[in-house]
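Long-time lurker, first post. I've been practising inverse folding by hand and with some scripts of my own, and I keep getting stuck on stretches where the structure tokens seem ambiguous. Below is the full token string for one chain I'm working on. Before anyone asks, I'm not after the true native sequence, just a reasonable design that respects the backbone. If someone could post their per-position residues I'd love to compare against what I wrote down in my notebook.
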């Protein structure tokens, strides 16, 4: 097995562990407080990779409005994901989150004027039907978290679409640093009404979430240097396995056979979509605070 694929598996396992810890802390801390601390901590590993860029250039932007819009969608999308993890089953969050490529494709056609092959539309539709099998609207009551993660998936698609447009000209430090700065300010203000002073144990968990997310991003960067992106991209679907495993082990969440079948449909269609893509993939490694907007 290529070393890059192994690194990608470790990276996505790190993300899943971080997500499980978010679900744990969400019972006692607000979403905004969790986002404030974990986003702040997640920048620590990333700083190592931006030492050649100058912090004073952070606001030297070629597309200022788009960069700021991306920060807004990424921060809001992160809050949606964190809310969902703390209110609905693990597997549901991941299954709905994997509809992001559908929204990205729609936006790429409508906004970027890209051409998408018919077979890719078919695979995206099949993937969406798999999500329907997982959540089964009309057959069971959907919770607020289900709607919130749907919004989060759409915001993640906007984040990704903007990133594809601006990444070639903007500094990585600007794309990462501004988002962390704005996230700290916005979440810092919003967490004040329900702020709870974290215990030492909670602070350690928040630090672990941030470091796991940041290190996962760095591992993905290294993975794409070792192995072609078309082999790395499908590994993200391993998160559904972790979702089922962690949900059962720690949170008493046991998806039925219909939901599991839906997950296989999502994974199968997603893998075929990636593997049948003829154009070279420009892989944007997931850094923790990018969340689902890859």
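-- Answer (accepted) --
I ran through it position by position. Result:
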């Amino acid at each position: 097995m290529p070393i890059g694929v192994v690194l990608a598996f470790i990276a996505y396992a790190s993300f899943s562990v971080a997500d499980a810890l978010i679900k744990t802390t969400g019972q006692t801390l607000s979403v905004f407080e969790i986002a404030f601390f974990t986003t702040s901590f997640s920048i620590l590993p990333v700083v190592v990779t931006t030492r050649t860029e100058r912090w004073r250039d952070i606001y030297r932007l070629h597309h200022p409005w788009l960069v700021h819009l991306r920060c807004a969608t990424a921060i809001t999308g992160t809050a949606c994901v964190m809310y969902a993890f703390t209110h609905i089953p693990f597997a549901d969050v991941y299954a709905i989150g994997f509809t992001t490529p559908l929204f990205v494709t729609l936006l790429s056609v409508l906004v970027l004027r890209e051409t998408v092959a018919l077979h890719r539309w078919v695979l995206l539709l099949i993937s969406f039907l798999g999500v329907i099998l997982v959540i089964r609207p009309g057959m069971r009551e959907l919770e607020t978290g289900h709607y919130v993660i749907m919004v989060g998936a759409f915001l993640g698609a906007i984040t990704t679409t903007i990133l594809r447009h601006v990444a070639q000209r903007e500094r990585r430090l600007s794309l990462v640093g501004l988002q962390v700065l704005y996230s700290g300010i916005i979440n810092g203000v919003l967490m004040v009404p329900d702020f709870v002073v974290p215990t030492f144990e909670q602070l350690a968990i928040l630090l672990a979430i941030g470091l796991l997310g940041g290190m996962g991003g760095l591992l993905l960067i290294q993975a794409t240097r070792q192995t072609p992106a078309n082999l790395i991209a499908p590994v993200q679907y391993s998160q559904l396995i972790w979702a089922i495993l962690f949900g059962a082990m720690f949170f008493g969440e046991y998806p039925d056979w219909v939901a599991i079948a839906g997950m296989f449909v999502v994974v199968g269609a997603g893998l075929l979509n990636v593997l049948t893509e003829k154009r070279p993939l420009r892989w944007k490694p997931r850094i923790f605070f990018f969340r689902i907007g890859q």
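A couple of notes from the structure itself: The chain has one domain: 3-283. The two ends are 24 Å apart (CA to CA). Happy to go over any region you disagree with.
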